[in-house]
Amino acid sequence: MTDKAPKTLVKSGARLSGNGSLRSLFNFLRERRWLLVALLVGAILFFIPPPEGLSEEGKRALIMTLMAVILFVTEPVPLPSVALMIIVGQVLFLGRATADVAESLMSDSVLFIMGSLMLAVAIVKQKLDKRLAYLIVSMTGPKTLNIAVGIALISGLMASVIGEHTVAAMMLPVALTLITLAKEDGKSIRGVAAILLLSISYGCSIAGIGTPSGGARNVIMIGYWREFFYDPLSPESGRYLISYFRWVMYAYPIFLIQLPFLTFVLFRVFKPEKSDLSRAVVKLREQIAAEGPMRSRDWVAISVFVFTLIGWIGFSQNIGLGVVALTGAIAFLVMGLTRWEDMNTGVNWGVVLLYAAAISLGVEMKDSGAAEWVASSLLAFLSPIGVDSGPPLWLTIAGLTTLVTNTMSNGAAVAVLGPITLDMAASAGESPIRLGFITAISSSFAYFTVVATPACMIVYSSGYLKTRDFLRVGYRMAIISLFFLMIAAMFYWPLIGL
Amino acid sequence: MDTSTDRFKILLCVDGSEESKRGLRYAVRVGKGNDADITLLYVRPRDPSLGTGGIDLRLVRENVLDWGLELPGMRALEEARTQLIEMGFMDAHWRSKAVNREVSGDPVGDSMIVYTSETGAQIVLKNMVSPSVARGILDECDLNEYDLTILAMGGEKEGSERGRINWDVTRTVVLDHHGTVLLARGIEESHGHLICVTNDQKSIEAAAKDAVMASRCDCPVHLFSVSENEEGIADAEAAIVAAREAIEAAGVKIVDQAVEVGDPIDCIIARGQPYSVIVLADSHVKGFRRFFEVSVGYKVLQFAHNSVMIVR
């Protein structure tokens, strides 16, 4: 390189590192304008007397929740710092004892989130994605339609038992390889790319409802049922302890029935430039063949995961989903299948903190009576238009949850909305289990935006998709998902005992 | 080998869009006339870690790289390099040197390939990771003072993939940039520069600067000034005379000149439509004043249908 070689690689963010200029200050304030809005809203509400039926304590919990929602949606500051604000706020603003707040942060739901993230990293690190690719192309052959179905099916089946981020991380290179190999003749294959990539993300999204371990939102709702309705002294309240298998009975069919519709929608929205990917499939097979046969290490990893799954199905009722997930993660570490360093750098621990704080705030909403007040106010609003019970109420809750979950993480949506919808069930004479399922399941209908779900974000990172692709597919899928959820709530769930 | 640092330096920000390709053709035209070095920059926005539900997107990137797949950005840069070779601006045998720098939280970090000809001309491909596209471009401009920064903006129809240069990126870069910026929008090479002048020293200097650059790449130069009312016509004509003197003193021939009365923004946009580029001097409106005063340059930049250059 010559003397005049361009300088490179400036430390990103240096521009804000500050000379204290007016511009830096203005940029700083502009980037944090929603934090200022949240603080302003909180301050105004603080000085307004609580409405009838809402205690001062409840009002404060509601203010905190409202501010947290503004910050969750607009993200003017890193989300883990919102979690820290919630924790500090519970002590300073709500007057809770520090020890009580600390205790409320760690529940089985949080252990599950922690354990499942560690499992996700461990599984991705096993490099089993090439085996998956082989399975898919062996099953489907070279037709684009069949490959899309295969990717959606495999993504869905896996995402129904492990986190969707795990599946998306493993499936993304499979789809990208097919896309890269298929476009070697230089022609654009954006349609094929969109179909394959969105088969992964939406396959994962519709499947996450299938089992409790499919997503944090499911475990959070199971935790709420236990926390709010289960009384060890009342045998009858045992029905609120939802087992792994019982969840599967309620939710898995809703996932399965949506799968063919997903492929139908994708092929309606995008026109694949190639109906046959033979050349790409042949080259992919060659790449996979170079990997050689399955190694013993691969089998051990699969066995550990299968035992974890068995643990969830067989023992989570007694020891909790979180403990089983942590046991699986420990097994991966102890057997040397993954290193702690990989888990430590692969897991974003801020997410654990975020969910812990959101769940803690949800419990605060319930305990302070704020959730009940919001629930009764909503019902009073809905009553004159006849949607305060039965299917109209169910659809309203599902629609509301769908809207909320598209603006923040679906786990946070359930953490915030769960206490309210469960209180609505109590006020409206509805089954908390039915409304809980509706809330948890519809929280997975985060189809409209890139940031709504981890799987969408991961496939979007490939650079092949446009943000509007998600909206074009998303609203169609949301209608289909809401339709099948309502059919299940009205006709299927009563058949299996609800 | 020429190792001087006074070669004309062009930064072209690419995003893989059709507009990037048109922008590159224009950069080559300017570059050939000005004996320039060209840097092609793709800014990859840093991956949001929490959006992926708790596993770091770095893990996903590593997995993709393990398969031998390229990250977004490399495709756009490689296509641009191929285009440069096809246009004869560089050949495939230039010496190359790759530089890489780790960036915390990113599996690839920043990467740069410098291609150098026997005469010392350079083409640089940069794939930079940054919190945002705009910030990455501004960082690069701060670091390597370019004579001309070209932003190829595709518009909404080009889509909204990550790394796209959209209006938000353009606005931020233009407002915070310290040098000359060209917003390339459907840019055609042969229709000349419409240089808009006002009767102040900064505008006249900017006009002369652009006229020299335009003439070196055989782009015809046209002068234009607008008066908001009849009383201001003399001032506008004085601006034209002063600009003409400055430009002709630099040895550049002016094709034609015109003065109009009306709203400067509307007049410039309407008049500038058939030209390759509308050229304006940097606005005097800075800092907080920018939010209370309308800058003609900013409005023309926003509402013109063709390319606009802000000369500083």
Task: Write up what this structure looks like.
The complex is a heterodimer of chains A (498) and B (312). Chain A is mainly alpha-helical and 498 residues long. Chain A has helices at 22-31, 33-46, 56-74, 79-92, 98-105, 108-125, 129-140, 144-159, 164-182, 190-207, 216-229, 244-269, 278-289, 296-319, 321-334, 340-346, 349-367, 370-382, 390-405, 410-428, 432-442, 454-460, 467-495. Chain A has two domains: 32-105; 127-292 and 369-495, no CATH class. Chain A has 23 helices and no strands. In chain A, helix 10 (190-207) packs antiparallel against helix 22 (454-460). The radius of gyration of chain A is 24 Å and the shape is globular. Residues 1-5 and 7-20 of chain A have low confidence and may be disordered. Chain B is an alpha/beta fold. In chain B, 36% of the residues lie in helices and 27% in strands. Chain B has a twelve-stranded mixed β-sheet with strand order 3-4-5-2-1-6-7-12-11-8-9-10, sandwiched between helices. In chain B, helix 4 (133-143) runs parallel beside helix 5 (167-176) and helix 6 (201-216) crosses helix 7 (233-249). Classes of the chains: A mainly alpha (498), B alpha/beta (312). At the A-B interface, helix 1, helix 6, helix 9, helix 17 and helix 22 of A face helix 2, strand 3, strand 4, strand 5 and helix 4 of B.
Question: TL;DR?
Answer:
Helix content of chain A is 72%, strand content 0%.
List keywords for this structure.
heterodimer, A: 498 residues, mainly alpha, 2 domains, 23 helices, 0% strand, B: 312 residues, alpha/beta, Rossmann fold, twelve-stranded mixed beta sheet, 12 strands, globular
Question: How are the SSEs ordered, and which strands pair?
Answer:
The complex is a heterodimer of chains A (498) and B (312).
Chain A: H1 22-31, H2 33-46, H3 56-74, H4 79-92, H5 98-105, H6 108-125, H7 129-140, H8 144-159, H9 164-182, H10 190-207, H11 216-229, H12 244-269, H13 278-289, H14 296-319, H15 321-334, H16 340-346, H17 349-367, H18 370-382, H19 390-405, H20 410-428, H21 432-442, H22 454-460, H23 467-495
Helix pairs in contact in A: 2-3, 3-4, 3-17, 4-17, 6-9, 6-11, 6-15, 6-16, 6-17, 7-8, 7-9, 7-13, 8-9, 8-10, 8-12, 9-10, 9-13, 9-22, 10-12, 10-22, 11-20, 11-21, 12-23, 14-15, 17-20, 18-20, 19-20, 19-21, 19-23, 20-21, 21-23
Chain B: E1 8-13, H1 18-34, E2 36-45, H2 57-66, H3 74-86, E3 95-103, E4 106-116, E5 122-130, H4 133-143, E6 148-152, H5 167-176, E7 181-184, E8 193-196, H6 201-216, E9 221-227, H7 233-249, E10 254-261, H8 264-272, E11 277-281, H9 296-303, E12 307-311
Parallel strand pairs in B: 1-2, 1-6, 2-5, 6-7, 8-9, 8-11, 9-10, 11-12
Antiparallel strand pairs in B: 3-4, 4-5, 7-12
